[in-house]
Structures are given as C-alpha cells and as structure tokens.
C-alpha cells in the first residue's frame, strides 16, 4: 500500500516536472520562433528575387489565405456587430480576394494595456493596426525586437499600386518611412485636403443671434461672448469640455504655441515653459475665476458634457464635426427647434493674426496604418491583399461598399443608399457606414472626400469644415509641428523624465486654474522644477531627432499640399 | 554503559515511527489530504513558481527576449523610483490612506457586528445585514461611477449641503477631500461584509459566561466589556496584524477611477503610480521593482506587528 503510494506520488512528481518542462519548452519555442523568422526574412526575399514565380501573386488567391489582424473596433460599430468579420465589407473582401480575415479587437478603453499584453504573450497576429506609439521605443524598437519587418523593398514588387502613389507623391515618404529608410506597414491615406480637419470649437448660434453678437474670432471676442452667455443666458458652464480641451492647441495656438514640443526657426521649443504659455494660463485662470469655464473641467466626461450642452448649461465647447455637431444637432432637433450651433474659427489674439496650429490629420493617418509583423508567413500575399485597397476597384469597395447594396453610381458619383444614410432599422450613418465600408473608420486605402460629403450632411457641418480651415494655408507655411522620431535609446533616456514632467505640469496647471496657486508667484519655480526634471536634456534629444529628420527629408521644410485622390482620376 | 546502549536503540525505534506516523496520518486523513491537494498545487503554481519572475526587477525586461534573456540592470529601477519626485509623495499617500483606513474603516465592522449582536429582533437584524452587504457585491467600477455622481456639483451630497444652506463644492477636484471620500466610501462598501467574521466569532462565545456574569449582577455594559470584547479580541488582533501587513499595498482600481491631476497631491498612491508607469507604459521591470520594495516593507511590518502582539497580548499569527 505504502509503496504503491510512494510510486504514485513519484509518478505525480514526474508528471508535474514534465509539465513544467513542457511549459518551459513551449515558451522558449514561442520566443525562438520570433527570432527564427526574423533571421529567415532576408533569405526569403532573396529567394523571391531569384525565382520569378514568386513575384506573380495574383488576386484572388488560388488557395484561401488567412490573416489575423489586431484592429481596435470603434464603439459606434457595436450596435450592429461584435466583430468586424461580421461586416458586409469583410465578407465581400473574402469573396473577392479569397482571403479569410480574423479580427482581434481590444476592449475599448484598455487597448493600451491589451496591446502590450498581446505582445508579451508572444501570440502576434499578421497585421497590427496602429501607431505603435504605445510600444516603448515605438516602431523602430519593435523592428529591433523582431516584431515588425521592413517591407520597403517588397512594396514595389507586391504592392505596385501603393508604390505608384508613393512615386507620384514622394512627400508621403516623410510619414511612412523612418529616418533609417525602413517601412513597416501601409498607411491609411486621406484623399483630399478638405477632409484633413474635422475638429474645432463651436457655440450656440441661436444665443449669438439673440444677443446680437458676431461669431467670435479673437480671444477677447470669445470672452465677451462667454460673459454674455453667463450673464444673459444663465449658462452655469459657458464653455464646457475637459482640461485637455482648453489646454489643446485650439486655445494655446492663439498665443502661437502648443503645450508640447513645436518648431520655431528650426529650434525645438517646449511650449509648457514658454513665457507665452504663462500669458495663456493667466487668461484661462481669469476665465475660470469669472465662471466662464466649466468648473467641472477636471471631472467631466462625454456624458456630463453632453448633458450640459443639451441642457442649456453650456454654450460653447470643442469637438468633431461628426461626433460633436453631428450628435447635438439631430439630438436637439425635436426637443428645441431653436437650438442651433455654429463653428468658430481657431481663435487668435488680434484681428489679422493667424492661429499657427490646426488639428490636422492627413494625408497619412498613422493610427490607421496596417503594420506587418514577423508572424506573417505569407508576406507577398499579405502585401497583395493590402495593395488591393489602393486600386481603383478596391478604393470604391473600401469607401462605399458594394455597388447596388450600399451605394449606387449616379453620373459617376457613388451615392450611399438608404441602407447607410437612412437605415430602416434606425441605425445612424456612423454605424451603418462601418458595416458596409471602412471609410468611417480607417484602413489600407485612400479615403475619398465623397464619403465625407455625404457623411457631413448638415449645412452646419459643411460650414464648420470651412470655418476651421480658415488659416489652413498659413498653418502649412508656418510649419510649426514637431517632426522626428526618437531612437529606442533616446526613448528610454527620456520617457521617465517626460512622464514626471507631464504629471507635474498637469498638476500645476490645475492648481493655477482653480486658484490654489498664483501664476505670477509660482511661474519661476515651476519652470525651475521642470528644468530640474530634465527638460533641457529632452529638448536636446528632440532637437537631434528633428535635425536627423530634416537631413533625411529636407522637403519637410517646404511642405506642399496635394490631393492623393487625383491619382485615380489620372 | 547501559545508557549508551539505550540511545541507538532509541534512534532505531524512532525512524520507523516517523514513516508509520505519516502512514497512520494518511490512512486517517486520506480525503482531507486529497481535498487540500488542489489548494497546495494552486499555491505552488500561482504563488511560488511565478516568484522567479521577480528577477525582472533587476533586469530590463523585454517581452520578446523573455525573462531569462533580458539584460541585467542591477538596481537601476529602484534608483529610478527613489529618485523620482513622486516617490515620497506616493509612499506618504499610501501610508496615510492605509493609516486612516486602520483608524476608521477597521473598527467600523467591529462596531456594526457588536451593535447587531445586541439587536433582539431577528428580522431587523437580517434586513440590516442584507442592506450593508449589498455594496460589497457591486463592481468597483460601478461603485466609483456612483461616487462620482454623488459628489458631482449637482449630485446628492451637494444637494444635501445646499439644502442646509451650504455652498456647493466639487469634491472630487479638491485634494483635501480625497482621503475622506476614499475611506468613507470604503466603509460603505465593506462594513457589512467585514462584520461577518466578527459575528461568527461572537456566536462562538460561551453563553454560560453571560449567564454567570448576569447572576453576578453585571449589566449590559459590563457584559460587553468583560465577556464580549475579550471573546472576539483574538479575531480583532489577527485581522489587525493582517491589515498592518498590507499597509504599503492598496489596490489601484478605485484610485485611478476617482483621481485626476488636481487631486494627485493626496490621491496618487504607489499602485496607481506603478499602474501609470508599469502597465500603461509597459515598463514591467519598473513595476516589479516597486512591487518587490512594497512586499519587503509589508513583510517587515507584519513580522513586527506579529512580534509586538505576541509579546503584549499573546495572540499572534505564528
């Protein structure tokens, strides 16, 4: 009895030990795989150049090719699908190209953590959509770590239509290529300058009319308007939003700065310690004290902001054409027929000035880029699949969906059907648009401005885009946005310092805003502290990165505007 | 001489007795041992095996290279933490929040249990228990959503304040209010659940003792002081020691749901700081280093508390 027990427990022990060994083996096998594939990559491409058969990847594929993709799903899509694979667009893609695409969606709000956990787990899909901004060290580090692969040399071979776009608009390379000359994925492109901007401030038009005030263009005019909203319309939070909203460049731009890094005369400037930031802060403090800014800026969320705007507590805020104007106007149409909104241009200090910063997303949209990982076993097929979006046929599919179902061609103009714009089940256009197309999200294609024209159906929306791009030309000329990529080493040198600075900066700003500290009295101490935390080192590192960028892409000094959509008309 | 002979005999005798004892024990408690096995396995697999991962505190962990192949960096992450301007603030905040919890939240369930013990009506007692247990079963996220609503400018608390003529405050942006709100809502959340263990130990007190003192002429208060309190004292002491062992750790969930830059001053604690640095920025080594530091302090505290308790009132964990 005892002996058998001992034997049993011995057996159990060996089993446990074997289990551990297995686990250990498994984990090394996983990590081993990544390394191997990285090593195998150049050999593969060498092969493909020597054998002509490899270069002829044709669509649709002869055998079904499966791809897995990490791709955040927008919450607006949730009413109609839990996974993007259910979308009509995806089914059509699978039919046309003989592919199978499996989507992995992170939970909204914790995408950052899940992204890092996914990479830690070692189970990496073929494509990862996004900037890799959350990966410590960015894409270059991900490449060094063997997660991403350099596809620059493969693009002309397997993605000829994308290559054609790069050839026609070489300025695009500034956005898709690293300073080392590597490319890790294919971009989401915006086809027309008119759809680069969709963000800005807006306010109650009916109140302005009633108070006989013009749409404010300067900070002083805005002050007058907010004051009137408070005193005459009884608004308890004349301007609502989050702290991020009032610290955003929409306001700071009036003083010619942003609160982060920007370029002035070829030098990197850190906005938050610039004397102009002090002037800006003092203005905001004054507004807050006089009750012109929402006292709950620090705790606001979308829900509370919506409630204040629809409840006549607030008269102005900042937001998007689609999710801002496009939300409130239809919402209030029946409740209050008087309710109307109007966009206000990016504010300036004096009439005749221009605001050198503008929320601008294009021609490349980095968080829509499809990056190819080392886990992708069929690189030629992957690129051929991605290339489809940059063909004329693919562009129509991605932007408008299936002809006869989600759009019809009227004199060559692809018009969304009622399924999308006026869905019988009452789903909004932003939801149905994602079900039939990818234009309402992002993807490996060129976004068509005709999508936007139909999406932004309200005249106030169309007007807002014009208002917000008032200074677009001057913004491009001023060219103040920071450019440049830090090397992985530089990232690890600066991240900790930057985080400490950010925490301190955010905290001080709120203390000033809420009147707990006096700006004049503490400003020098504040600058001193940020310097002590190492801002000068970071600026130097960023300056070097900027210089490297300019050296590699001198054209960045003279940015040109162009409309990629033109390539399909040629 | 005979003594010398005795000893080897004694040794020879003792050896089989050990095996026999195990054998006997196994025979007697076969099913108990079997039942304990999964728990032991769980502890080994999920608490002891992962301990080797703590070495990433001394490495620059890269998920791709794995734990073993990541480069050693020595004490860099510890230096990083202690050199950071936030270090002392988050340590102070963690200790203070825990101190206030010990001061206010720890006695709360004891008081509730004692009060319930004095209640004669069974239905009243059960109702109170159910009502106080309820918040424990609601997810922290929901609880925090409710707290944010309650403490908003147009929320319940401000409505009450305004009704009595006070002026409305936005509590959640006032650093001075954070700990009060945190500890106060913590009591609301945990008081009922926490009282269960005390109620259980109250029922274990021999009723004959009460009868005896009643005969001796002791009133309600004397009964309470001389029978009830000493009766549950060992439970209180054990839980107190365990609480002291957690002085440096406080979950981040509730903090990150309730804080904002204007309350960092009092709200930012070690775990929320580690969450920002470690999880969100994927600096796992840094979190491991801070976690290790935390555990060491906690271990020291619990050993000290246990030692003091053993010396002073002879109740201790070990």
UniProtKB/TrEMBL annotation, chain A:
UniProtKB keywords: Signal
Tell me the domain of life.
Bacteria
Signal sequence extent: 1-31
**Bias (Polar residues) ranges:** 45-55
Which segments carry the region annotation Disordered?
36-55
Name listed for the protein in its UniProt record: Extracellular solute-binding protein
